[in-house]
Amino acid sequence: MTITERTITAPEETLALPAGPTIAHRPLGAFTRPQGSEGWTSWLFTVDHKRIGIMYGAAAMFFFLVGGAEALFIRLQLATPNGSVIGAGTYNGVFTMHGVTMVFLVIMPMAAAFANYLLPLQIGARDVAFPRLNAFSFWCFLAGGLLLVSSIFIGGWFQNAPDGGWFNYAPNSGLPFSPSKGIDFYAVGLQITGVASLVSSINLIVTVLNMRTKGMSFFRMPVLTWMLLITQFLLLFAIPVITVALFLLMFDRLWDANFFNVAAGADPLLWQHLFWIFGHPEVYILILPAFGIVSEIIPTFSRKPLFGYHFMVASGIAIGFMGWGVWAHHMFTSGIGPLAVAAFSVSTMFIAVPTGVKILNWLATMYRGRLRFTTPMLYAVGVVSMFTIGGLSGVTHAIAPSDTQQTDTYYIVAHFHYVIFGGALLGLFGGFYFWWPKAFGYKLSEGWGKASFWVMLIGFNFTFGPMHILGLQGMSRRIATYRADEGFALWNMVATIGSFVIAVGVAMFLWNVYTSTRKWQRAGRPDVGPDPWDARGLEWMTASPVPEHNFDSEIEVERLDEFWHRKYGVDENHRVVKTATAEEVAHDGSNTKVHLPSPSYWPIVLGGGILLVGYGLIYNLWLAAAGLVLLVGAIYGWILEPADDPDAAGHHDDHHDDGDGHGDPAGNGGPDGNGESASAAAPADTEEGATVG
Amino acid sequence: MSRRLRALVWLSSLLIIAGTIALIVVGIVVTDDHPLSTLSPVGRQGRDIARLINPIFIVAGVVFFLVQGAVLALWWRYRVGGSETGDGEHGYYEDDEFPDQIHGNDRLEIAWTIVPTILLAVISVFTLVGLFALDDVKASEEDMVVTVIGQQWWWEYQYHLDGDTTTPPDIVTANELVIPAGVDVALDIKSRDVIHSFWIPKLNGKRDAVPGRSHDWVIQADNPGRYRGQCTEFCGLSHGYMKMVAIALTPSEFAQWRDNQLTSADLPTEGTAAAAGWDTFSQQCASCHVINGVTSPANRGGDPDAPTDGWDIYGEFNGESAGAYLETDTLVAGAAPNLTHLMTRGTFAGSIFDLYLGAGDHIPYLDLPTSGVLNRGDLEAWISNAPERKPADADGLRGMPARTGLSPNDIDNVVAFLSTLD
């Protein structure tokens, strides 16, 4: 029997860390760094990618409840003909905020939660490339999100909420047609969240390109890492486009510019092009992370490697590229001319090919597997099944002439909810169940998990399935009500009931979080172990919850699914046999001698400055000036604070006594010793052979 | 029963259930007629679109059942049991058995890349052919061009009987687009303020009305009838209340309708309720609403000596600006429905209210003014407080302002006056 033998020893020696330049003792008096990793203040100043990931997830979940409540109001208003639950004005604000919230404040940050938490772990890194920037991304996102959501309450219930739809077409977004402050909130708020996305995308791209652990070549990266990387590139190129559009809109509304003023000669189609050049890649920004999550879950619970890894990666890249060439399919009725319609009709059709490849590869992964339908697996398979429906309806409106019947009807509403709810959101929920034990050290209840999955899935289909019918029967989108004799009453009522079933499913998820946490605490916080699902990625190769320093020592990767291969070998009959337990292979988090970046006051202060600038732009430029002062001050503080506080308790920086002169290995430390990645970038040097047999 | 057989029985019964549900749904969709349905087209263009998309619905349906069937089959065939809590010796599994570790199959991958590509290539050929055929917008037989102008939140139709849109229109009407059945009618779609979208689902797909642009479109109805529509591009506050109707008449009926529309209205006889109504109307309503032959530029604060007849009322009219964007402070300039032949229409206020009780469906369209029973309740409520019936921002010159100062008697008189407009 030739079983791959591995000896596993926990690293015991002190890690030899690279030294940065010597740091003066409290160089500027006031500019010290916060200390400690306990208590709620440590969350405010943290630069730990895992805590930032958790905060992204928590904030996204909060906004999810806000957006979900808005959805219920929409469904109540439309439940019966001539609905009068909320008036037309409020309705317009509610559906606009529902879309804006779910896209920008729920799905994107939930994906950011997974990207932050998992990306460094999956590539075996210590942290992201720029930990302080990472913290800033989160606070900036939160500032933009709170600014947007506050518009619901400021000046009365939905009096100043954006009311132009999430797509916010000009010239309806102009002051004469939307005189409230709502669209100012939209323009400013989304620019702020855009800054967060942009900064985060650069950070994560650098992380993946520069900080992969030894042997982690591109084609040994997990598919989730790949999909997140592609997502970051899409963000990098898409966010500037929407930012330009929002910037122009802001000038139109606040300072009487004429970018979208038709009377002054503007063509309103300019906004549409800018919005959708962003807007369609945005769809893939929403869905690709979920594709990555599904690609992690299905192999784990099929006990098989992902079928066609290279094709999965390639199809993700193909989607990333092709996603830029289909934007005008949102404009088939806008009057862009038959040639443009023809070109975008065809390009849209063919983007179905790489998506179909993904579906088939997931099915092939399950084929002849040993399928264990745990909660994460249910969600992942739910994505395969539901996303297929959204993909098929997508092809039906790639047929441009038929799209002239379907666009702006409930058929489209059904389509994109099957994609974004049935695809992205179900995938992200599956991810919550899958990585919850990794992040928190205990599992969510399988019983409640499965029950809430089925409730959510059934509610989802009852809500959005009938909308296909409603759309084909001619019900337009964004209408506050409909006449009784239009024949839409039956399916609207079904959809409304379905939406409340979804709400029950979500409540069951929250209840699951609560009871599972209580149960775990009552049981004395038992250790779930590093690898509760018998999974494949490097993130499972360390203790749960992941210790602050991620891995005790650098991992050398020799192949795809390194961790799984350290647990399993193959005998002479090509049968898989277990060679080591996860506990034997994984790091136990006992190495406390790892240098970590210190927390920082400045990311949250900078976020606060941006928030003030945001409100100031909308209400009072003096407030904006005050915010600007705070913002500039925060940037100075950021620059001037020491790389580490020599007085910090638990300070185990060996910069001073090391002095071997070997510089910052990542090369991005900067001469002032204040580089973001001076300590975070480099996985700790480790004694060779500690983990690799 | 073997496991395989049981799976087959289970699977086929599931498919039968799913198929039955699908059939019921399809049955409801097809049999239950809906006035805005895209599934039962009665116009040439609508039919062409349906002919293009229906086979693709079938293909999509087949793929749907194949994929969902595969998911269920894989589920049934390859699922294994194990610990619910994952605390067992083998985690969530009951043993340490692993299946063959298949990493992929390049030939299979290439196959399932190429096969859908070919399928979609075929579909795209049909799409392109259909697309360019539908785009070939040429009105047959008729010279007439109707300029369709969207504005918050109603539609204006300007009929150019000679097809020359650079000259003043011959007929101006609102919300109900009357066309001769059986012929292609050319439309020229514009907007005065924000983007709207003109859509009569049973006749053709939608076309956006974009300010500053002019979009050609064409509709045709096989049979005489009333076909509902809805503005389908979000256009602000009352978007949901911006509807329209296309009325297809036989050619002879259409000629009759056209000849009537070409006439101007007369001032009501002195001393009647209608005359009292005109007094109120001229003070309260005529600054926005035009009635050919009755209202004059003076009603809009213009030159009282200007001719009162016909389209001079559109002081700003020249070839370009009739369908062009008007700034809000000029939105009053004729941008309220022309009421010259109000009583010939079946609906009012953006087609959200029926002008005649029972929607007048049982009455031939041309007989509505003579045989219909006026829907006084909605009409009077509308005149006295329009924003209450249809959300509007009248202060921002968007929508009809409330006239709550009018007494019930005033309103009765105004209705009496409006009733003469047939």
Walk me through the structure.
The complex is a heterodimer of chains A (693) and B (422). Among the domains of chain A are: 1-37 and 548-601 and 641-693, no CATH class; 64-120 and 143-177 and 187-218 and 233-263, no CATH class; 605-638, no CATH class. Chain A has 20 helices and two strands. Chain A has helices at 39-44, 49-78, 88-122, 131-150, 182-210, 223-255, 269-300, 309-322, 338-350, 352-366, 375-398, 400-406, 410-440, 446-472, 489-522, 562-567, 582-585, 602-619, 621-640, 655-658; strands at residues 568-570, 576-578. In chain A, strands 1-2 form a two-stranded antiparallel sheet. The radius of gyration of chain A is 26 Å and the shape is globular. The relative contact order of chain A is 0.15. In chain B, the strands form four sheets. In chain B, strands 3-2-1-5-8 form a five-stranded mixed beta sheet, with no helix packed on it. A three-stranded mixed beta sheet of chain B has the order 4-10-9. A two-stranded antiparallel ribbon of chain B has the order 6-7. In chain B, a hairpin with an 8-residue loop joins β6 (196-198) and β7 (207-209). Chain B starts with a helix and ends with a helix. In chain B, α2 runs antiparallel to α3 (106-135) and α5 (273-284) packs across α9. Chain B is of the alpha+beta class and 422 residues long. Chain B is elongated. Chain B contains nine helices and twelve strands. The longest helix of chain B has 35 residues, at 44-78.
